[in-house]
Amino acid sequence: MKNRAALLHSVFYLILIALAIFYLLPVYLMLLTGVKPINEVDLKTMWDLPSAGLHIDNFIAGFQQLAPNLKNSLAMVIPEALLSALLGSFNGYLLSKWKFRGSDVIFSLILFGMFIPYQSILIPLVKFMQTIKLYGDLPGLVLVHIIYGIPITTLIFRNYYAGIGTEIVEAGRIDGAGLLGIYRHIIFPLSAPSFAVVIIWQFTQAWNEFLFAVILTNQSHWPVTVALNNLAGSQLVQWNVLMAATLLAALPTLLVYIFLGRYFLRGLMAGALKG
Amino acid sequence: MLRKFKLDPSRLILAILLMLFGAIAIYFLSRTQLVIAGSNFTSIGILTSGVIFYAGVLVIVAMFENEKLLSISLLAPSIVAVAIFVYGFIAWSIRVSLSKWKGLLPDYTWAGLSQYTYLFHDARFMIDVRNTVVFTIGFIAGCLILGLGLAILLDQRLKGEALFRGVFLFPMSISFIASGVIWGWLMNPATGNRITGINLIFQKFGLDSLISQWHSSPQPWGMAFTVIPAVWQLSGFTMALYLGGIRSISEDIREAARVDGASELEIYRYVVLPLLQPVTLSAVIILGHMSLKIFDLIVALGHKDLRLDVPGIYMWTTTFDGTNYAQGAAIGILMLVSVAILVVPYLIYSIRSEAVV
After folding, report:
1. What pTM was computed for the model?
2. Which listed site, A52, A84, A211, B16, has its alpha carbon 20 to 30 Å from A270?
């Protein structure tokens, strides 16, 4: 019986390791190709280890290609994530602790905005952004991400605040605090974990987003996803540089995942299970 | 309402100052341009001034000591934003889809449902529908099977569980664009002298029969292969959902089944799986709405290859390359309908049984 269990465990490990190799294969390829010198880049030897030491020329070349776009992405994502979180926190607080007649209906109507395919609002959005002169540049993209982020940020905060007992709010009221006072002195200080979740979530989403970015910005303001897609489609770029560039473009969200994965996962769960 | 109005002179002054500042800022910004670091911030400035003005209004509302009114007033900006950007724009899109707008200048001449009837007879749109169906089935099935399998494996309390979990989950943090670019190289269809990517691995290990044309295969198999990168990205997420579900099942129930003589396999089959149905439902909704609007992955993988066309790409090229706005809007609305059919019943169900939301 003991032997059978041990055998079973070995089989489990073998399956898990095989699958782990499959999951890591793309990253391995990006790293491997990224560190090869130009003369070693040959489709036939794609999987061979570099024979003449490690080179970082490709990463430098890739960075030179994408530097302005990485900067654009950063300039867009940081204000977007912070403002989104602030707005979501307020909405979540009001919709969980200060319900009024119809507030649940309003919440579900807001929530629906999270699921819509953005192609269904794209034409009016472009026309509207052109009319209010926010078309082509990053401030407009930030605004669009914040607005379409309202559903998910509200949801995450609402669920989080729903877990905080109403007694604490009642206690605040007895002490004479109003709606804003309770938020400032009781709710906000308790919100750090969900702020982390929402900021990380919005950061990742906006960094990885493509459709709004490609439609709403002009070339000098392209975020990194648009530039990367463009780079991949052009014949002029060496593919080892492309691999290095892809890794660079994915690096910020990868690092966020590696170091703050716990919060990242919580955001995911909130978006999926709603509670 | 007025009976509880409490006038506080200092707050009133604050309110007037905020409103005054906001109004003056709007007045000036509407006449000049605000440029910071090369970007035009005029509209953002006007918006910010509007928010400041509204903050003044809120200070006055707060003096009524009617917290429901204050709650609604504080929510109002978000409600208005969603009302315009989601519902207003959907209505506007519907109107465009019923027009003859073709070309850069808006043309709202009534055309009835002609765009929709055209699309249902359009060969390209029919390919898109078929591709979406193939993708959706493959993607959901792949994620659910792999996700559940991984979750059960990781539930065995093996050493290094956290490490494996991390490895299976990390692709989720990468953009569909980056994923499409890498997998485009891994699934390179070249053969003979130019063989590369995964095909090269197959060749090296003598598994020549596995060498594939990948997403360049004849349809619908080509489309089915685009599922691989998508499953690579989201099966770990599905695993996390299932693992959360499994771990929330009380150990007592499983122990009771064990006492009754059930084997581990039977426990999964008859105890765990039935209890995971709500997780499966959530996963299907989340994955399903993603696959119905799949866009960036296919763009990065197929570079607008017509054989791998999906409605999202058709909408994009028709509208912004072909300037056929009416038709583009119609495609967008049909995508919305497909997602709504999946999501709306679930949302209503969730709201009714508050437990889920």
Report:
1. 0.92
2. A211
